[in-house]
Design brief:
Length: 228
């Protein structure tokens, strides 16, 4: 059943011409990956993460990134999140569109994992303004976001050891789904979400907003970069 689900999901990914659908936004995002691949790879290599898989996971976020929207949300988290935590503000920020709640989940999981001992560091998880301010400083740089992404991938590989036994295309689909939908859900729950359509590029979602499958977009981009 698992392999049948993976095959069917992969076939669905190529039923939509995503580069055509997203047009110039796709081209701009793809060029951004090319321009930053070398510097990002250095960060992913620190944690033994496949940089091409990592780039595919966040590629849909690059498509819909809006600089002015990000500046507004950065201002909100710098004020309200730092002072009140995620109850105050929990907006996605940066090129990879990471929420403070996501980084909190990654930090908490990292601290109790064997990986923290392997790599020799843990996060300060105290609930105060200075710790939250430091977290936002990390999220506000691409180096910091690359490292959070790398930790996210390593934690899911540890939590679901069967993941590394799958073909890389299937790993992309699983990790992209977990990144977009749920970091903490079960293996089966994440598998079942792989074909769901929630992704959109509208500033405000309406009843007429086209919805796409995040994992499909990530997989199509992954195929383009490994075939070059």
């Amino acid at each position: 059943m698992l392999w049948l689900l993976l095959v069917m999901s992969s076939a669905t990914a190529f039923s939509v011409n995503y580069p055509k659908v997203f047009g110039s936004n796709w081209a701009i995002a793809a060029n951004y990956v090319i321009e930053h691949h070398s510097e990002w790879k250095k960060e992913f290599d620190l944690f033994d993460v496949d940089s091409r898989i990592a780039e595919a996971i966040i590629f849909p976020e690059l498509i819909r990134y809006s600089k002015w929207k990000d500046q507004i949300e950065q201002a909100a988290v710098n004020g309200l999140y730092v002072s009140r935590g995620i109850a105050g503000a929990n907006f996605s920020i940066g090129r990879f569109q990471m929420k403070p709640s996501f980084s909190e989940e990654v930090e908490t999981a990292w601290n109790v994992s064997a990986l923290s001992k392997e790599y020799g560091f843990v996060f300060n998880l105290q609930d105060n303004n200075e710790v939250r301010r430091s977290r936002i400083r990390r999220l506000s740089t691409e180096q910091g976001q690359c490292r959070y992404l790398a930790l996210f991938i390593r934690l899911l590989q540890q939590r679901h050891p069967q993941l590394l036994k799958l073909p890389k295309e299937a790993q992309v689909r699983f990790l992209a789904t977990a990144y977009n939908r749920s970091f903490t859900d079960s293996w089966n729950a994440i598998l079942n979400m792989q074909s769901q359509r929630h992704f959109h590029t509208d500033i405000i979602k309406t009843h007429s907003t086209p919805l796409y499958c995040y994992a499909d977009i990530a997989l199509v981009f992954y195929k383009t970069i490994i075939e070059k």
